[in-house]
Amino acid sequence: MEVVCLDRPGSALIPWLEESVVLLDALRAEGQPGQIRRLDLAELADPGQINAVHGFGVAQALALAQALGELPQRLLLLGIVIDAATPSPPELDGAALLAQLEAWQRGAINPAIK
């Protein structure tokens, strides 16, 4: 497993999309800051559902990758809810994040996190 931190990657995210990928990004959405939300491509495609923090962000990069036939076989999309009014990072629910990653690795996604 390789962990890569990409700050506002835009289309530069695409070369990092290998066979199995976990994407974690800040997310403006309903919920408590620090809450982890599992997302799907359909949610990312609907701007009324999810507001990305960056202009050309994960949603646009994945749409481009899909158009190019470059989506990974296994893709887990996780967003950390942030408070739009507070620029400081939220307190992360590390246990929930770890549970999501372990479930994904086993091939079973935890439906309790949404």
Low-confidence stretches: 110-114
- End-to-end distance: 24 Å
CATH superfamily: HybD-like
Instruction: Compute the number of helices.
Output: 3
On the 0-100 scale, what is the average pLDDT?
76
Query: What fraction strand?
Result: 15-25%
The strand order across the widest sheet is: 2-4-1-3
The amount of helix comes to 10-25%
Name the shape in a single word: globular
Structural class: alpha+beta
Number of domains: 1
Total strands: 4
What is the CATH topology? Answer: Rossmann fold
Compact overview of the structure:
One of its GO terms (molecular function) is peptidase activity. The protein is an alpha+beta fold and 114 residues long.
List keywords for this structure.
114 residues, alpha+beta, Rossmann fold, 4-stranded mixed β-sheet, 3 helices, 4 strands, 25% helix, 20% strand, disordered C terminus, enzyme activator activity, Peptidase_A31, peptidase activity
